[in-house]
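Handout, page 2. Input:
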Amino acid sequence: DDLGHKRSLTFALKYIEQMGHDSARVMHDIKDTIIKTVCTVQPQLAHTYRSCQPDDIENSMCFEILGFDIFLDDK
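Output:
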């Protein structure tokens, strides 16, 4: 869990706690950031979806995978 250049979320949250920070608050802020981002891009995602399936509203075969990189600092 603590080897290599990538760390698991579990390791990161434990480390945040060990450094004296509130990991629950950090997770809340991360989730809040993701929600706000998805709300912001939702119109573009909807447009892309309708463009891919313009005449087939019941098939629902179009999807988008979104990834998030969250950078944390000590501030």
